[in-house]
Design a protein that fits this description.
With about 400 residues, this protein is α/β, with parallel strands linked by helices. It has 17 helices and 12 strands. The two termini are about 20 Å apart.
């Protein structure tokens, strides 16, 4: 008889894939390897022993105008996921980030009254927008795991048990990235300064941002011939990135895989990045960077109406001041990006201001005796144990 725990994980994009993989490692460690994993994830989770139900690149969409054409396919995948959960009968279902997809799976599953514990990992940013969401999550999940210490207070008043476990970025391998290994592997001369271009992990992000980032890179190359440009990408958008570079006159190295990605970031003198988890990784790794982001005009208008925060970058949000330049919508143009990258290369006062800010970000996030993934695993395993007692 197989007494292994059955853990069902749902990660809809690369940031969730990385989070899920670390959670899998923690659960395996705490159960002595007596856990089986099922669900949806990317390359990193598959390396930890889970075969994904379908390719998560299908879910790598964002923005109203981008989502609408994908609705039929996404609805089909929601139904397929719920059917798979019912068939497997896992000990727990954990949706990770990507609440727009995960919530729909959790809602359909709850309606079936399976009795399977349902958990969501990474709180929706209700402190930024859609505050009403905090009032309804208890209907669809039994427990919420949050990354930031201020988040439980938004959910517990509405009857949702919530645990702050810490931000997984402090576990990111980028902290241990090896710049020398990266330079040797790709024969990059010590005199060449590496600039990382990180245009996102969703197709529409890459389509909108990569042309702007490449234009900035071309301008920078003219000013600084010693620069060497690298795009550390992920499986979900790798083919699109390479296709968009076919007619690009500027030599750009594209690397895939977690090790190359983090080694490249560690080796960078500066970076141009989409807003998101990667920007926080850059802050933890002490890499000077600017963020740029653009969405469809209709999406931008809606976001502007509903967003209730001063900043979008998490480093800036955590400190309550801008240490990472936010070039959003009409400000996201090559000339603005070049302005800031030049300041980083010159290591001027703004460069020093940002470096001091990164130190404070690391202090706020903190490093405890247990990693965030280990804390999350403890909560999950306790919920399974309590359910089995009932």
């Amino acid at each position: 008889m197989n007494n292994n725990l059955k853990i069902y994980l749902i990660a809809g994009e690369p940031s969730g894939d990385a989070l899920g993989a670390r959670l899998m490692r923690a659960i395996k460690k705490k159960t002595g390897g007596k856990a089986e994993f099922f669900g949806i994830g990317g390359d990193t989770m598959e390396k930890e022993g889970m075969s994904s139900l379908f390719d998560i690149s299908e879910l790598a969409i964002m923005g109203l105008c981008e989502v609408i054409p994908s609705i039929p396919r996404v609805l089909k995948r929601i139904g397929q996921t719920v059917d798979d959960i019912v068939r497997i009968r896992p000990d727990v279902v954990i949706s990770i980030d990507s609440w727009s997809f995960g919530s729909r799976v959790q809602k359909k599953l709850r309606a079936l009254k399976t009795g399977i514990p349902q958990i969501h990992y990474v709180a929706p940013q209700v402190w930024a927008w859609k505050k009403k969401r905090a009032r309804t999550m208890y209907k669809y999940v039994d427990h919420l795991l949050t990354l930031l210490p201020q988040e439980p207070k938004y959910f517990t008043p509405y009857g949702l048990p919530t645990t702050f476990v810490g931000h997984p970025v402090i576990e990111s391998p980028v902290v241990h990235g090896d710049r020398e290994i990266f330079r040797r592997k790709y024969s990059i001369d010590a005199a060449q300064k590496i600039i990382c271009l990180l245009p996102g992990s969703r197709h529409n992000e890459v389509s909108r941002l990569l042309p702007i980032f490449l234009e900035a890179a071309q301008m920078l190359k003219q000013q600084h011939p010693e620069l060497f440009f690298v795009i550390p990408t992920v499986k979900t958008v790798a083919a699109r990135v390479k296709n968009m570079l076919k007619n690009n006159p500027l030599p750009v190295l594209v690397v895939e895989g977690e090790e190359d990605r983090h080694n490249a970031m560690s080796a960078a003198a500066a970076a141009i990045a989409a807003s998101g988890t990667v920007a926080l990784e850059l802050a933890i790794a002490d890499v000077p960077h600017v963020i740029g982001y653009k969405v469809a005009p209709v999406t931008a208008a809606l976001v502007k109406h509903f967003l209730h925060i001063q900043f979008v970058n998490l480093s800036n949000i955590l400190l309550g001041r801008e240490i990472v330049p936010e070039l959003l919508q009409e400000r996201c143009v090559a000339s603005n990006i070049v302005l800031y990258i030049n300041r980083f290369l010159e290591q001027d006062s703004f460069y020093r201001h940002q470096a001091e800010g990164f130190k404070k970000v690391r202090e706020v996030l903190g490093v405890g005796e247990q990693t965030p993934s280990e804390k999350a695993a403890d909560v999950i395993l306790q919920i399974i144990a309590d359910t089995r007692k009932v």
